[in-house]
Design goal:
Largest sheet: 7 strands, mixed
Number of helices: 36
Distance between the termini: 67 Å
Strand order of the largest sheet: 18-4-3-19-20-22-21
Keywords: Methyltransferase, Transferase
Number of strands: 26
InterPro entries: Antiphage_assoc, DUF1156, SAM-dependent_MTases_sf
Protein name: Adenine-specific DNA methylase
Pfam family, one: DUF1156
Oligomer: single chain
Strand content: 5-15%
GO molecular function: methyltransferase activity
Radius of gyration: 31 Å
Length: about 950
């Protein structure tokens, strides 16, 4: 049984989709769904939009025209980009993009610094110049001036005419197109299912495009977010305005209460914006109370620092906060702290003590599950605790307050001045008043569910605050001021709410406040001068010092940004285990949990502790448990069995011509093989795979390169009953790999390449799995056995061997354009890695994931020293000059290669400004110089033109020297 292929099964514009997804990722709070609340790994809306269209769009015999129309629908063609343009190009940038003749025609002042348009230039002429300049920009540059595709409500009529003429449709909107394509493929409006809905990206975008949607998640917080993005957005304008008015009413009433209490205003009438707290503990050596300060710089923009003033009477330190510090004081502060390398340095006796020693960690030799489980002497906090006791090893102390002063100029216009001050006696009194106010309310508020009363359950992530701070209940992760504010918001919300949707926006608002205002919220002393969210990364990291936002800065956080989206289709959301879903879907798009990447079930309990009672009230049929025991998690046989069960259920709950798309983060061949066996065992066949790179720079407490690449794995029902033998597969795999690469090359745009080596390699992965999963069974592969056995890093499964063979075939086939095939085969893996890496740069690809994929394919395990930068979207190889002579002849596999010596020769020639010295280096150092000349010339010939490529200006001098060296070597001895 066969079905017509979808566009995404044949091709996909991965480069452009990656760029659009990256733009969406970098949009921060302006993304449509992030304002609803935190969820980990939420996929960009555009990846969903492009994928769904790719699944419904038919593939024809004219792949280039298919791609042209596909890009037009997604507003990624030239006209679509122009229509998305919402920012003007500056006159200076226009000037630089024009020819000299055009500059003379339109500009008065012919100066690149301050060009001015000619007087009397018409509006239409300026608009035309915008278009001329815009069309001369690269795709990446154009995106800076454009709306994101998911912000575009519709195409223009001319575009729809072209789309309809090609597809035989009569659509005038995205929704009509999706409906008609679905009717053609399935006989009705397509239904899209997602049983791991998480933050709701997949069901939201599918519904917005006009599909009927069924969504579910095992986790109540994820289901709450999904329900919210699907149901709050479909309300009419009046309903949305009422929700916003409700939030405003609650906010204003709490604000009045806080003002009446006088807990945020000082004697000058200034209002607090932020409070900075630090941990303190006694120095084991001298007994002084030491504040834990990883930095004594409070703000770089305001040059604000904190000085520690020794108080011998109390055997402690007082704080002096200094704004606009002198150069000497600021430089001293930049080099001084009391906490570094997980140790505390006492400013009194200068003794350095590891923090585990302060906690008195001990190893009792008992095996326990999870991390952070070593016993220590920290007191475990009790349910009604919300401040430290005097006898505690660790305590907290307020050391700085950021105040806001409002003044008025002569015209009555308000002007805001920020002040950073050390807490005064009156400030301390206000702190004590906050504690007293909370003490009066905590028991009742916990009973009503206004603040948490849940015990923290031990786990991989949840053990951390227990072990590091002694906090045992969720409310211990918030200080008295944070608890008081959130308790007031909850109390007033319940008081004023008239509808379930008002209670739901209360839950969303309180969850956002919890995320942005806890004792895990780091203070940013950079230009923002504000706190970061609790989940700056995927953990519950306790801090040496933290920021507590005052009430006023919570305004934007509390108010949920809801944009009305018409309800184009049916939508259903359920709180349900993926193994128990009962509905059918034509298309399943899922982003499953994988290999313990994120412990959603544990981390979500941070929010669930605030939501439990209100969820019960609004959704009485929902459970209010994270269902840890049922969560699909981990690795090994239990995880694999759960995943097979889920995907077997999805296969059974879709039509014979149904499609599935699985999103997951690309890790390594072993992960690929395991996931593939899961899907194969569930009766699914791989038909295509594409890698969408959506890297953003590491933030928060992340270390290293956190690659944000998403693999889209396209699947259909496996219907074959055939059995194949393992040895028979390899010729078919080789043919499929070459066919896949050839077909991608054939449709690629040579001027604006869509595919790069990592894409071709991924196609090789998919090609091998396409052949493998086309059979019911393979002799020599026991899938159930492979899925049930423990992973062994030193033992490759048969599937891993098949994929590695496919990759090898691809690499043998992917010789750099114009490079001699015979010489290429003589190079070492490290040399091939470097030369292919240069090809990535030629194509303007700077993702670290590209180099990781190359290294994996060539079997290069150590490649860090090859790179000049490992920064996300800025990764690139070192030039010859940047390499210098470092590592030459060392024990590494690259240090004594021919290419390494050629790079040194270029460096020497460049440094000495003498190409002959570079050639003489090669003649002296290479034993077989005369026999290797053709290889030397071939490599130099490959490097020489690089300097002329616009984005590789850093190679200009070295590449020029390579061209001179090539001539010298080529003519040597003639």
């Amino acid at each position: 049984m066969s079905y017509d292929k979808s566009f995404i099964e044949v091709q996909f514009p991965v480069s452009k989709v990656s760029k659009e997804c990256y733009k969406e990722r970098k949009a921060g709070s302006s993304q449509l769904l992030t304002g609803f609340g935190k969820w980990w790994g939420r996929k960009p809306l555009f990846i969903v939009r492009a994928s769904l269209l790719g699944l419904l769009f038919p593939s024809t015999q004219d792949p280039k025209k298919d791609r042209e129309i596909f890009l037009k629908i997604l507003t990624m063609d030239e006209e679509g980009l122009w229509n998305r343009k919402n920012k003007s190009i500056s006159s200076k940038d226009i000037f630089n993009l024009l020819t000299p003749e055009e500059r003379n025609l339109y500009f008065e002042t012919i100066s690149a610094d301050k060009p001015t348009f000619k007087k009397g230039l018409k509006k239409e002429e300026k608009a035309n110049l915008q278009k001329i300049a815009f069309n001369r920009l690269s795709y990446d540059e154009k995106l800076k001036y454009c709306l994101r595709p998911e912000q575009v409500e519709n195409l223009d009529q001319q575009s729809w005419s072209q789309v309809n003429a090609y597809l035989g449709t009569t659509a005038n909107s995205f929704q009509e197109l999706i409906k008609q394509l679905g009717e053609r493929k399935f006989g009705h409006t397509p239904s899209v299912g997602d049983c791991f809905s998480g933050g709701g990206s997949i069901p939201f975008e599918a519904a917005r495009l006009g599909s009927n949607v069924n969504a579910s998640d095992l986790n109540p917080i994820a289901t709450l977010l999904t329900w919210s993005v699907l149901n709050l957005t479909e309300g009419n304008k009046e309903e949305i305005q009422n929700l916003k008015k409700f939030q405003q009413t609650v906010y204003e009433n709490v604000d009045k209460q806080i003002t009446r209490w006088g807990i945020e205003h000082n004697e000058q009438g200034w209002r607090a914006v932020a409070y900075l707290y630090c941990t303190e503990s006694n120095c084991p050596e001298c007994g002084y109370r030491v504040p834990f300060l990883p930095s004594t710089i409070i703000g770089t923009r305001t040059r604000t620092v904190v000085k520690l003033i020794k108080n011998d009477e109390l055997k402690a330190f007082d704080f002096e906060v200094i704004e606009n510090a002198s150069d000497d004081l600021y430089e001293e502060a930049s080099e001084w702290s009391t906490v570094a390398d997980y140790s505390v340095k006492c400013p009194n006796c200068h003794t350095t003590t590891p923090i585990p020693s302060i906690r008195r960690d001990m190893d009792d030799g008992v095996e326990r599950p999870y991390r952070y489980n070593t016993p220590n002497s920290l007191r475990k906090w009790e349910q009604l605790d919300f401040v430290n006791r005097e006898s505690d090893i660790l305590s907290e102390r307020l050391y700085c307050i950021k105040y806001e002063e409002t003044t008025y100029d002569n015209d009555g216009n308000p002007r805001t001045i920020m002040h950073y001050v050390a807490p005064s006696e009156k400030d301390v009194e206000r702190e004590n008043k906050v504690i007293a106010l909370l003490a009066e309310r905590i028991e009742e508020w916990q009973k009503q569910g206004y603040i948490p009363s849940d015990l923290i359950e031990a786990g991989w992530n949840t053990n951390q605050p227990i072990y590091e701070k002694g906090w045992t209940y969720w409310h211990h992760l918030f200080n008295p001021r944070q608890l008081l504010i959130k308790g007031l918001l909850m109390e007033n919300s319940v008081k004023y709410a008239k509808t379930d949707k008002e209670l739901i926006v209360t839950l969303l608002g309180i969850n956002k406040c919890a995320n942005w205002n806890s004792k895990l919220s780091m203070w940013s002393n950079d230009d923002t001068h504000n706190s970061r969210m609790t989940f700056s990364n995927q953990a519950l990291n306790t801090l040496a010092h933290y920021c507590c936002r005052a009430y006023k800065p919570l305004y934007e956080i509390w108010n949920i940004s809801i944009e009305g989206v018409p309800a184009y289709s049916q939508r259903k959301v359920q709180l349900e285990d993926a193994r128990k879903i009962s509905w059918n879907s034509d298309i399943w798009i899922t982003d499953p949990p994988y290999a313990d990447a994120v412990n959603y079930h544990e981390l979500s309990e941070f929010f669930l502790a605030w939501n439990r009672k209100l969820i019960n009230k609004v959704f009485p049929h929902w459970y209010v448990d994270s269902k840890r025991i049922l969560a699909v998690q981990g690795t090994g046989s239990q995880f694999n069995e759960s995943m097979v069960e889920v995907y077997t259920k999805l296969r059974n709950n879709m039509p014979d011509n149904g499609l599935q798309l699985v999103m997951f983060t690309h890790q390594d061949v072993t992960v690929w093989a395991e996931l593939s066996m899961i899907l194969w065992s569930a009766g699914l066949q791989v038909t295509a795979a594409w890698n969408i790179a959506t890297e953003t720079e590491s933030g928060g407490l992340k270390e290293g390169n956190y690659v944000k690449g998403t693999v889209l794995l396209v699947l259909r029902k496996q219907t074959s009953e055939e059995t194949a033998y393992l040895d028979e597969l390899y010729p078919d795999i080789e043919a499929e790999v070459k066919y896949q690469i050839d077909s991608m090359r054939e449709i690629d745009d040579q001027d604006d390449p869509n595919f790069s080596d990592p894409d071709y390699l991924l196609a090789a992965y998919a090609a091998s799995l396409k052949i493998l999963t086309s059979y019911k069974r393979i002799e020599g592969i026991d899938v159930q056995y492979e899925l049930s056995k423990a992973r062994n890093a030193n033992e490759d499964s048969p599937i891993v061997k098949i994929i590695n063979e496919a990759v090898k075939i691809a690499y043998d086939y992917l010789i750099p354009s114009g490079f001699d095939k015979y010489i290429w085969k003589t190079l070492t893996p490290e040399e091939r890695f470097y030369l292919k890496g240069l090809e990535l740069e030629k194509h303007n690809i700077y993702q670290i994931s590209g180099y990781q994929e190359l290294a994996r394919g060539f079997g290069v395990h150590e490649y860090k020293d090859f790179l000049a930068s490992t920064k996300a979207n800025s990764a690139r190889l070192k030039t010859a000059s940047e390499f210098g002579t470092r590592g030459l002849g060392d024990s590494s596999k690259f240090g004594s290669t021919l290419l390494r010596n050629i790079l040194v020769a270029i460096h020497i020639a460049q440094k000495e400004e003498d190409s002959v010295k570079g050639r003489n280096w090669l003649k002296t150092e290479l034993v077989n110089y005369w026999n290797m000349r053709s290889s030397i010339v071939e490599i130099l010939k490959y490097i020489a033109p690089i300097g002329f490529i616009e984005n590789m200006g850093h190679w200009q001098k070295d590449a020029h020297m390579a061209s001179i060296l090539k001539e010298l070597v080529e003519n040597d001895g003639v």
